[in-house]
Design goal:
This protein is an alpha/beta fold. The chain is built from 15 helices and 11 strands. It has one domain: Alpha-Beta Complex (Amidase signature (AS) enzymes), CATH 3.90.1300. Helix content is 38%, strand content 13%. The longest helix is centred in the C-terminal third of the chain and has 22 residues. The structure holds glutamine (GLN). InterPro entries: Amidase, Amidase_CS, Amidase_dom, AS_sf, GatA.
């Protein structure tokens, strides 16, 4: 195996024993990018100073600029292009920010700098993270590494594809309604959305501020825990960040799930779900039973309202967050005859179709006279959805569902039908509305070799519970078969 195909924990062992250097890994990643990126297009920007970063890393370690305990030093990591990096172009996949260079680092970037990672570049995404296929990027679509002509999922499609195509060891994404878990599922990698408040959103270009979370993509569950350790923690610059201790998530990786109670929501195994996806998930559940877990059927009765609720809350927050892009302080600008004319021209030219659709939907839902009927009502339903989970989590430890109702769909298949596209998030959205953590791990392939993902949802701040079950399952599935 080439170095760029290994997991971070495997590479770390070799680095620590001085069998390899960070430069060796960087060179392997660069070689892979040179060979495959033209077919995948995982990146919007690839940094040309990767080797320089690798050259400096040992000095940084010895001089104490990098945390000596870090398991991430010298490891190449890709960053979704809605996470601000000081001096590096950050576009959010939009024309309106095509020339935006942030003057500061997001908190997660500061943390990764302290952990000594090598930054590879900024990954492709749906414009402002609006989408489930990475097709709404102003920079062109990303292609699923599993199959030509298929989407990688979205909105963090570039981050998922970069790891799946061995163009990165790890990557960061953001998840507002499924944007980490769904592409992880479609590309066959691990992706986690932490509990709302676990990871700082400072420096993340806001989409739906009450829903957004940054999280890791990785090849396996161990790497997910390692990266989550580095990202988590309280940050006074994000008022929704929660001040509670961060456990060592790698300690949750025990293989032992005897007696763990798993809930299977009956509302998630509905008509319309792809037969191969259903079968793979059912098989995974059987496997977990054989490993000693106790499986019970549960009900989340307000599930049917989740998509509608999300598309009111998320668009309302998006329309308000996007008001700042007016051609004045930063980003794209088109001159006009007056300031209002300039605003109009800048926004008409700078935003794509989906962004405009969301601004209109959200502005309507928030407008005087409609606020109570839409935004207020959606927030009441959101509370009911959260309470569904609270009730169930009094009885079970984790909930298992498919991550996505279908495997990777064809490029163009859903682009002209927003409702169809919105429905691809039917299993992931509720976790964001409730603020709970969720992971997607590979649980099989279709007969056409398209990856299938298993979603594990947990209680608020119980990322450990999720990782424990994910790890136990992975130990079986890693050997090439996805069930006992
Ligand atoms: N696909 C969902 C949407 O379009 C979720 C996106 C996300 O999580 N950023 O809003």
């Amino acid at each position: 195996m080439e170095l760029n195909e290994l997991a971070c924990h495997e590479l770390h062992e070799k680095l620590a024993k001085k069998e390899i250097t960070s430069m060796d890994i960087v060179k392997a990643v660069e070689k892979q990018i040179a060979a495959t990126e033209k077919n995948i297009h995982a990146y919007i920007t690839i940094f040309d100073d990767m080797e320089e970063q690798a050259r400096k890393i040992v000095d940084k370690l010895t001089s104490g600029q990098v945390d000596k305990e870090s398991l991430l030093w010298g490891i190449p990591v890709a960053i979704k292009d809605n996470i601000c990096m000081d001096g590096r172009r950050t576009t959010a996949g939009s024309k309106i920010l095509h020339n935006f260079i942030p003057p500061y680092d997001a908190t997660v970037i500061e943390k990764l700098k302290n952990a000594g990672v090598i930054f590879i570049g900024k990954t492709n995404m749906d414009e402002f993270a609006f989408g489930s296929s990475t097709e709404t990027s102003n920079f062109g679509p990303t292609i699923n590494p599993s199959r030509e002509g298929r989407v990688p999922g979205g909105s963090s499609g570039g981050s998922a594809a970069a790891v799946a195509a061995d163009e990165a060891i790890l990557s960061l994404g953001s998840d507002t309604g499924g944007s980490i878990r769904q592409p992880a599922s479609l590309c066959g990698v691990v992706g986690m959305k932490p509990t709302y408040g676990r990871v700082s959103r400072y420096g993340l270009i806001a989409f739906g501020s009450s829903l957004d979370q940054i999280g890791p993509f990785s090849r396996d569950v161990t790497d997910c825990a390692i990266l989550l350790n580095a990202l988590s923690g309280y940050d006074s610059r994000d008022s929704t960040s929660v001040n509670r201790p961060v456990p060592d998530y790698t300690k949750a990786l025990t293989k032992n799930i005897r007696g763990v109670k798993i809930g299977i929501p009956k509302e998630y195994f509905i008509e319309g779900i792809n037969a191969e996806v259903k079968k793979a998930v059912e098989r995974a559940i059987e496997t977990l039973k054989k490993l000693g877990a106790e499986v019970v059927e549960i009900s989340l009765p307000h599930t049917e309202y989740a998509v509608a609720t999300y598309y009111i809350v998320a668009t309302a927050e998006a329309s308000s967050n996007l008001a700042r892009y007016d051609g004045v302080k930063y980003g794209h600008r088109k001159e006009g005859t007056s300031i209002v004319d300039m605003y109009g021209k800048t926004r008409a030219d700078g935003f794509g179709k989906e962004a405009k659709r969301r601004i209109m939907l959200g502005t309507y839902a928030l407008s005087a006279g409609y606020y109570d009927a839409y935004y207020l009502k959606a927030n009441k339903v959101r509370t009911l959805i959260r309470q569904d989970f609270e009730k169930v989590f009094a009885k079970v430890d984790v909930i298992i569902t498919p991550t996505s109702p279908t495997p990777a769909f064809k490029i163009g298949e859903k682009l002209d039908d927003p409702l169809k596209m919105y429905l691809s998030d039917i299993f992931t959205i509720s976790a964001n509305l409730a603020g709970i953590p969720g992971i997607s791990i590979p649980c099989g392939l279709t007969k056409n070799d398209l990856p299938i993902g298993l979603q594990i949802l947990g209680k608020h701040f119980d990322e450990e519970g999720i990782l424990r079950v994910a790890y136990a399952y992975e130990q079986i599935s890693k050997r090439g078969f996805y069930g006992l």
